[in-house]
């Protein structure tokens, strides 16, 4: 089994389209104003957004995108007007992360974990 797609809610797909294209995702299905789908720049995963009348309550959605050149990616995004909660920080769980929010308040974590993403030192059953 392979994760194919994640779908998130949005109040305004047009703002979301602009934002996620700036992040580097490629628009492949445009059924705005109700639905859009993007292809991630690496691999075959897709990311979609559907129009809602009201966003879910609580902490909302957390979306992680990995980039091997995190610091450069953050600088590039800042140069096109993307604002970050914080720039790249080395975390205790061995990932380097930068955080920002999309136009609907969903938390985006751009990170680089390398081998530690799947094989952290505390992995359960590391031989699997």
Could you state the order of secondary-structure elements as H and E?
Answer: EHEEEEHEEE
Main sheet overview: 4 strands, mixed
The first-level CATH class name: Alpha Beta
The second-level CATH architecture is Roll
Side-by-side strand order of the widest sheet: 1-4-3-2
Stretches where pLDDT falls below 50 for ≥5 residues?
none
Organism: Splendidivirga corallicola
Domain VOC: 2-113
Pfam families: Glyoxalase
Protein name: VOC family protein
Features:
128 residues, 2,3-Dihydroxybiphenyl 1,2-Dioxygenase, domain 1, four-stranded mixed sheet, 2 helices, Glyas_Bleomycin-R_OHBP_Dase, Glyas_Fos-R_dOase_dom, 35% strand, VOC_core
Explain what the structure shows.
This protein is α/β, with parallel strands linked by helices and about 130 residues long. It has one domain: 2,3-Dihydroxybiphenyl 1,2-Dioxygenase, domain 1. The chain is about 15% helix and about 35% strand. It contains 2 helices and 8 strands; from the N terminus they run βαββββαβββ. It has a 4-stranded mixed beta sheet, covered by helices on one side. A hairpin with a 6-residue loop joins strand 3 and strand 4.
């Amino acid at each position: 089994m392979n994760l194919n797609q994640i779908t998130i809610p949005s109040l305004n797909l047009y703002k979301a389209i602009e934002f996620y294209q700036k992040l580097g995702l490629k628009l492949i299905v445009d059924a705005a104003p109700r639905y859009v789908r993007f292809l991630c720049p690496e691999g075959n995963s897709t990311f979609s957004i559907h129009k809602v009348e009201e966003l879910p309550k609580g902490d909302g959605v957390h979306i992680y995108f990995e980039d091997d050149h995190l610091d450069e990616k953050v600088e590039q995004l800042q140069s096109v007007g993307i604002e970050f909660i914080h720039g790249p920080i080395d975390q205790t769980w061995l990932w380097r992360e930068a955080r920002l929010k999309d136009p609907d308040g969903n938390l985006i974590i751009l990170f680089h974990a390398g081998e530690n993403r799947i094989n952290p030192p505390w992995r359960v059953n590391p031989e699997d």
